[in-house]
Design a protein that fits this description.
Blueprint lengths: L3 H7 L20 H31 L4 H17 L1 H32 L7 E2 L5 E2 L2 H21 L3 H7 L7 H31 L1 H21 L13 H5 L8 H19 L3 H25 L3 H24 L5 H8 L4 E2 L2 E2 L7 H23 L6 H24 L9 H29 L5 H23 L6 E2 L2 E2 L2 H36 L5
Helix pairs in contact: 1-16, 2-3, 2-4, 2-6, 2-7, 2-8, 3-5, 3-11, 3-17, 4-5, 4-8, 5-10, 7-8, 7-14, 11-17, 12-15, 12-16, 12-17, 12-18, 14-16, 15-16, 15-18, 16-17
């Protein structure tokens, strides 16, 4: 059983605890950990490899406008972070973790390989209209649906097996999650570098194809390593999967059939920006109504106060991630169009710079963990709202770096690369200040009876931010011709206005939360 103190260390970034770094490669760990390490590494390789290329594939190959491209990414990202709530529930109640991961991985393989189908590139007809290969576009959307459903089954379940490998109280547990998390960052960084370079240099099908090959390797690794998982992750009640509650179909196959039918539904939904927004809004509304009802009817005074704090910080988390996720939309296009990407005389592809986030995490996460430990021993460690405020303000300062770069733009109309590097640095430090305490805060501030529900609310807030981020990016949409910017000066001005606005959003939101922090701390009733 993971207590609150350990859960904070297990949550995604705090798992990199400085005192475990020296021993994490020497202490003995269950063999299953390394199976999960490589499975997750390759899954993240495929996921981030595809996501790195997505905005460029739409704008530079199929000649989608910036607006439509951002809306497409908003639809995809919103669904890919909202549906894991369902995948986790199905695994908990019926399939178990292993079956869910295998099913999800198969869908991901098919989805990523489908992305490798380019079809014919869009072109301008004699009358000036853009002609696109509709078959290729629909294959693209169907591939997105496969990936969304695959992530639905993998994302919430693979980390759960990692925790199950260790006995309660095993100090190696935290080091194990550290190793596991390193796999995520290795996959993310290498995907941005390799898929980003391959896709833009030799062809989109090669970049997307490499992402698909990564997922195939991950699936094979997981299947071959089943014996090392010590029988963990199986169905909670195997006999239920064999029951035939409807049309003589075993429940397990019924789940798979419904999920496949769900892919066709997602295929249509992901193409409609308004439908996705309405679904997220209505689902959020249902959760809010439930929470308000629980606070009034079921919660004690202390539980009510803590839930109120959790709602407030969940809202501010949306602000942070909406800023942070610009890296895959407006910042990616800005890097491609405005930034001088020459390094030692060679021009790098824009998507490759997304890897800076993962690289900075590997470098600075142990430093941040050590800093919090030292401050904690001195009883000076900031509380949850203050860390959130710091993270949001640092995200704002990242955009301030880009604004400064635009103000000092060179005579060639290009922004110096150092300003982009600084932006990723500020964003990463902000992420390390805010993200570690997120999941931990949910477990600490939620009444024990609705922890699962509140975790769903937290992931739904993330989905909302993923949906909002590309909408914000639309504020810097510029006119393009055959995928190239029509007016460079107008593009620079558009990005300047967007990033200036995001700078002030981050600073103002962070200051507001900082002002509220004493009030929120009081209502946390002893939770730190």
């Amino acid at each position: 059983m993971v207590n609150e103190k350990n859960f904070q260390k297990l949550s995604i970034f705090v798992s990199i605890d400085a005192k475990f770094i020296p021993m994490m490669f020497f202490r003995k760990h269950p063999k299953g950990l390394f199976i999960l390490f490589f499975t997750e590494m390759w899954e993240r390789f495929s996921f981030y490899g595809m996501k790195t290329l997505l905005i460029f594939y739409l704008t530079k190959y199929h000649f989608f406008s910036d607006d439509v491209s951002n809306e497409t990414i908003a639809n995809y990202a919103g669904l890919v972070y909202a549906l894991p709530i369902i995948g986790g529930a199905v695994a908990d109640r019926y399939l178990g973790f292993k079956k869910s991961i295998v099913f999800g991985a198969i869908l991901l393989v098919l989805g990523h390989l489908g992305m490798a189908y380019e079809g014919h590139q869009a072109y301008y007809a004699a009358n000036g209209e853009i002609v696109r290969d509709n078959t290729a576009i629909q294959v693209f959307y169907f591939s997105l649906a496969l990936i969304i459903m695959g992530v639905c089954y993998i994302k919430p379940n693979i980390s759960s097996i990692v925790g199950s490998l260790y006995k309660p109280g095993d100090r190696n547990r935290d080091a194990g999650f550290t190793i596991f998390y390193m796999g995520i960052n290795i996959g993310s960084a290498s995907a941005s570098l390799l898929c980003g370079w391959l896709g833009e240099t030799y062809g989109w099908k090669y970049g997307f194809g490499l992402a698909g090959i990564g997922m195939i390797i991950g699936l094979i690794t997981f299947l071959l390593g089943q014996k090392q998982l010590q029988g963990l992750g199986g169905p909670p009640e195997p006999e239920k999967l064999k029951e035939k509650p409807f049309l003589g179909i075993p429940r397990e196959w019924g789940i798979y059939i419904l999920s496949i039918l769900g892919i066709f539904l997602v295929w249509q939904i992901v193409q409609d920006h308004h439908v996705v927004g309405s679904l997220l809004a209505s689902t959020g509304g249902i959760f809010i109504v439930f929470i308000v009802w629980y606070m009034i009817k079921k919660a004690s005074a202390v539980e009510r106060a803590r839930l109120f704090v959790l709602i407030i910080i969940s809202f501010f988390s949306i602000v942070f991630w909406a800023l942070f996720e610009q890296s895959f939309t407006s910042m990616n296009l800005f890097t491609d169009r405005i930034v001088d990407r020459r390094v030692f005389g060679n021009e790098l592809n824009a998507g490759m710079f997304i890897s800076l986030n993962a690289i900075f995490i590997v470098i600075f996460a142990p430093v941040m963990a050590a800093l919090w430990m030292r401050l904690g021993k001195s009883r000076m460690e900031p509380n949850i709202p203050v860390k959130f405020a710091m993270g949001i303000m640092l995200a704002g300062l990242g955009f301030g770096s880009l604004v400064m770069g635009i103000k000092l733009i060179g005579t060639d109309g290009k922004v110096a690369l150092i300003w982009l590097v600084l932006a990723y640095f500020f964003h990463t430090i902000g992420e390390l200040a805010l993200s570690p305490v997120g999941l931990s805060a949910v477990t600490k501030l939620s009444p024990s009876k609705i922890v699962g529900t509140m975790m769903g609310v937290w992931f739904l807030a993330t989905a909302a931010s993923e949906y909002i981020a590309p909408i914000l990016a639309k504020l810097a949409s510029v006119k393009t011709v055959a995928g190239e910017v029509a007016d460079s000066a107008a593009a620079v001005n558009a990005y300047d206005q967007l990033f200036s606005g995001l700078l002030w959003v981050g600073l103002i939101a962070g200051v507001i939360l900082l002002i509220l922090s004493p009030f929120l701390k009081k209502h946390m009733h002893g939770i730190q």
